[in-house]
Amino acid sequence: MRYAARLDDNSKLVTHLIIIISLVFLFRQITDISRDTLSTTVMLFILVPVIVIAWCLSPRYYTITATTILIRRPLLSITIHLEDVVRLRSITEEDLGSSSRLLNIGGVFGYLGTYRSSEIGKYQRWCTNREDLVLIESDNQKWLISPAGADDFVRRVNQLINIPDQP
């Protein structure tokens, strides 16, 4: 079963702003006749790799197979084996408590990378929105994803790993 990874309004806004700012710097770089382009060159060397890396790591969709959950990305998709899953549930941003960023990209093409939460500890966040959140826990790792139709996603995976529906 395939579940979409839709960007929320905040991610769309941040992504579009970063791309527009990069295009403005690029236009200034090309059209600057004074040849004093060090500042725009530096900004382009920062912004362009951030945009490319964020796009390559952002989820395109999530797939449930008979044995795995796949987080499909343009580069380096993530495979979570169902036999390793000990708990899977829908959560909200409030359930995370206060989160701090460890190594991530927040907002450009989604919320991607490693975070630490006061409630659940260290986790990998591969979300495109902050609404339909699903927490997947194994013995040694946690993933937070945001498939469209999170309740159906949780129900289907729990059926595959033989966990009864939660009330």
From TrEMBL:
Report TM segments.
12-30, 42-63
Name all Bacterial Pleckstrin homology domain ranges. Answer: 62-160
Q: Name one Pfam family in it.
A: bPH_5
Keywords from the named record = Membrane, Transmembrane, Transmembrane helix
Its recorded name reads Bacterial Pleckstrin homology domain-containing protein
State the species of origin: Chitinophaga eiseniae
Q: What is the lineage of its organism?
A: Bacteria, Pseudomonadati, Bacteroidota, Chitinophagia, Chitinophagales
